[in-house]
């Protein structure tokens, strides 16, 4: 049975655009698209042009079976269900919905506070930032209501301190960072709008040290092995080689590789200029000879004839652009398998390897950030932790420190 005659072609690309517009986080988008991509691939493998209820039901049953066999835990089992449900709901209605009607709105607040929130969020914000700002505003105003405040009158520094203290007893450091940041932005708006006598800059200027995970990188020897294993005589290999060099040499994110357009390549000036999907900022990177040759070989000798503006196209009909960043991850996975490398790493590991190599070779953290297109060095600092060579220079000696008991 077919579901409302919904065509599979182009559906994943529309879904990606909807997720971005809704404002889900980058990592969440990738996870949702990965699951949706699996649904699409199952249809393609069975030759289905339209969304088929039985194929979807078969996937549901597989997830259910994996749970009862103990291969996935309940959390992953439930998450898998929800990811499929969200994609199917989008296919049928064109809407992306979460469990809550609007992200960040679990706490109900008075109409007066609600009006303040809506006016505050009406400014120019990235969708992800807007969701975080809404979450903090709702949480703060709901807390004020719980303390007996129906409006901002008489609510000041003491209430802010108590709210932050209450949050610190319940939240991880990363969440506290977001609360402090967006509460400061909220009060800046309230002060500018005449709704507060102060922006409380001094009170909200403290720094919260977030926990950050250091992800492993891909060793240079493994990268070389992977590139050598790509068969550049085939159409698939030419595309894969160009994609891998964009990640290896220039450190592009998968989402930017997918969105890269023919007009982004300035062959005369030797530059690649594009708007980064994650930050919305324009990045200008050098078109190195090896990357340029790989792109030229793919575009002239392997890219299907199509009117699409995107550089990277599907290998089979319909010749449409790659639908989502998860496809780049699949290309990376296939390259790793061909080279006999573990497939646990992600395409983003190429970006981490490039950044770490730059830091190790003495490139300043500011230049690394500029070269990678990072908005600020906070996104680049974690790569310093992987520079064991220079970290050893900073290590303190144990000379003169006697062990307990003199032994």
Brief account:
By secondary structure, the protein is mainly α. Helices cover 53% and strands 5% of the residues.
Tell me roughly what share of residues is in helical segments: 40-55%
Output the radius of gyration: 25 Å
In DSSP terms (H or I, runs of 4 or more residues), the helix count works out at: 16
- Write the CATH fold name of the largest domain: hpI Integrase, Chain A
Number of domains: 3
Low-confidence stretches: 99-104
CATH homology superfamily name of the largest domain: Intergrase catalytic core
How far the N terminus sits from the C terminus, by CA atoms, comes to 78 Å
Order of helices and strands: EHHEHHHHHHHHHEEEHHHHH
Q: What's the quaternary structure here?
A: single chain
User: Can you summarize the main beta sheet?
Assistant: 3 strands, antiparallel
Q: What is the 3D form?
A: globular
Task: Indicate the structural class.
Answer: mainly alpha
Please tell me the CATH architecture of the largest domain by its name: Orthogonal Bundle
Count of distinct strands: 5
How is the largest sheet built, in terms of strand order? 3-4-5
- The first-level CATH class of the largest domain is given as Mainly Alpha
| Strand percent estimate | 5-15%
Average pLDDT over all residues: 83
């Amino acid at each position: 049975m077919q579901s409302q005659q919904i065509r599979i072609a182009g559906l994943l690309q529309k879904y990606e655009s909807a997720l971005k517009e809704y404002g889900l986080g980058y990592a969440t988008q990738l996870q949702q698209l990965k699951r949706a991509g699996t649904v699409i691939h199952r249809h393609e493998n069975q030759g289905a042009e339209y969304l088929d209820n039985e194929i979807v039901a078969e996937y549901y049953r597989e997830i259910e079976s994996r749970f009862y066999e103990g291969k996935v835990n309940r959390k992953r089992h439930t998450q898998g269900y929800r990811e499929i449900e969200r994609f199917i709901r989008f296919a049928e209605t064109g809407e992306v919905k979460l469990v809550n009607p609007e992200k960040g709105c679990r706490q109900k607040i008075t109409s007066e506070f609600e009006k303040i929130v809506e006016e505050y969020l009406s400014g120019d914000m990235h969708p992800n930032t807007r969701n975080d700002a809404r979450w903090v505003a709702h949480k703060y105003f709901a807390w004020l209501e719980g303390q007996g405040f129906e409006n901002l009158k008489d609510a000041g520094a003491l209430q802010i301190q108590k709210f932050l203290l209450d949050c610190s007893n319940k939240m991880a450091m990363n969440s506290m960072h977001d609360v402090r940041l967006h509460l400061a932005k909220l009060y800046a708006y309230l002060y500018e709008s005449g709704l507060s006598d102060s922006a409380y800059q001094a009170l909200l200027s403290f720094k919260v040290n977030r926990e950050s995970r250091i992800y492993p990188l891909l060793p240079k020897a493994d990268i070389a092995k992977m590139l050598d294993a790509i068969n550049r005589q085939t159409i698939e290999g030419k595309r894969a080689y160009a994609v891998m060099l964009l990640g290896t040499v220039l450190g592009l994110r998968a989402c930017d590789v997918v969105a890269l357009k023919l007009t982004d390549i300035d062959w005369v000036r030797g530059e690649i200029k594009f708007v980064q999907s994650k930050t919305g900022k324009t990045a200008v990177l050098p078109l190195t000879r090896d990357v340029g040759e790989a792109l030229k070989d793919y575009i002239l000798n392997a890219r299907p004839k199509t009117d699409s503006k995107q550089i990277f196209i599907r290998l089979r009909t319909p010749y449409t652009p790659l639908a989502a960043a998860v496809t780049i991850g699949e290309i990376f996975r296939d390259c790793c398998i061909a080279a006999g490398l573990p497939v646990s790493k992600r395409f983003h590991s190429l970006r981490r390897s490039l950044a770490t190599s730059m830091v190790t070779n003495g490139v300043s953290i500011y230049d690394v950030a500029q070269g990678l297109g990072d908005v600020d060095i906070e996104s680049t600092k974690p790569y310093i932790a992987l520079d064991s060579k220079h970290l050893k220079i900073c290590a303190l000696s144990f000379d003169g420190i006697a062990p307990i008991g003199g032994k």
